[in-house]
Amino acid sequence: MSKPRSSFVWFILLVLFTAVFTFFGPQEKSLGDNVRIVYLHGAWVLTAQMTFLAGAVMGLIGLLTRRDGAHRWSQALGRTGIIFWVTYLPLSLWAMQANWNGLFLSEPRFRVAVIFAIAGVLLQIGLGLVAKLPWTSLANLAYAISLNFVLKQAGNVLHPPPSPIFSSGNLKIEIFFIVLNLLILLAAWQLTRWWQRK
Predict the structure, then answer these.
(1) Tell me, what's the pLDDT at 32?
(2) For residue range 92-118, what is the model confidence (pLDDT) as tens digits?
(3) What is the C-alpha separation between 17 and 143, in angstroms, rounded?
(4) What residues form DSSP beta bridges with 28?
(5) What distance in Å separates the CA atoms of residue 21 and residue 79, rounded to the nearest whole number?
(6) What whole-number percentage of the chain has pLDDT above 90?
(7) Alpha-carbon distance 166 to 34, whole Å?
(8) How far apart are CA 80 and CA 95, in angstroms?
(9) Helix (H) / strand (E) containing 28
(10) DSSP H helical segments within the chain, as ranges?
(11) pTM
């Protein structure tokens, strides 16, 4: 099995294992079993954001050093980030429906997520067609900065700060969420390696 294919297989296996792992997550007093969807959706979007940030950092390194290797990592991380960001949207809808018995589509952070998902997909398609690595790095840097800025300005309705998980005082939930994040980050790493070697 070739290395790129092996990375993609590992990505699929890790996603499947994450789904099973999430099923055994600890319950919460008010949300019960449905809190597991919230855990998954939270860890999934954090992975997307961290991947975008990593893509921006590698893009900046590529622009400063003019090394194609850094540009290629930025390209791969940007593609992985948008896949996780787009797939976070149905998880978010599922979490809304399961826990609040309806879809709150005008929720500020969800609206931002949809706008940046559409823009991000179009951006990655455009960058793939243009095929200029420095442009990809610059675009990934601008995208990550813009997303972070807009999210900080968005209101919190279904996403009350600070993190409900890490302010819960429940060590079992906190440890579970950390492990879940590590699993999804590992899946994102495998997908990034696959993109980088294509």
Answers:
(1) 67
(2) 888 777 666 655 666 778 888 999 999
(3) 30
(4) 32
(5) 25
(6) 62
(7) 18
(8) 22
(9) none
(10) 3-23, 35-65, 68-100, 108-130, 133-153, 171-197
(11) 0.89
Contact status, residue 185 vs residue 5, Cβ threshold 8 Å: no
Which position has the token pair 């319950």? Answer: 27
> Strand, coil or helix: what is 32?
strand
- 32 phi, psi to nearest 5 deg: 60, -135
Question: Which pair of tokens denotes residue 168?
Answer: 């819960």
CB of 51 closer than 8 Å to CB of 87: no
- List phi, psi (to 5°) of 28: -125, 150
Q: Which of 64-78, 85-99, 126-140 has the lowest mean pLDDT?
A: 85-99
Nearest to 137 by CA among 79, 197, 195: 79
Long-range contacts of 152-159 (CB under 8 A, 24+ apart): 154/108, 154/109, 154/111, 154/112, 155/108, 155/109, 156/108, 156/109, 157/104, 157/107, 157/108, 157/109, 158/96, 158/100, 158/104, 158/107, 158/109, 158/110, 159/109
Mean pLDDT of the region 54-70:
96
- Measure the CA–CA gap between 195 and 74, rounded to whole angstroms: 10
DSSP secondary structure, 45-57, as one string: HHHHHHHHHHHHH
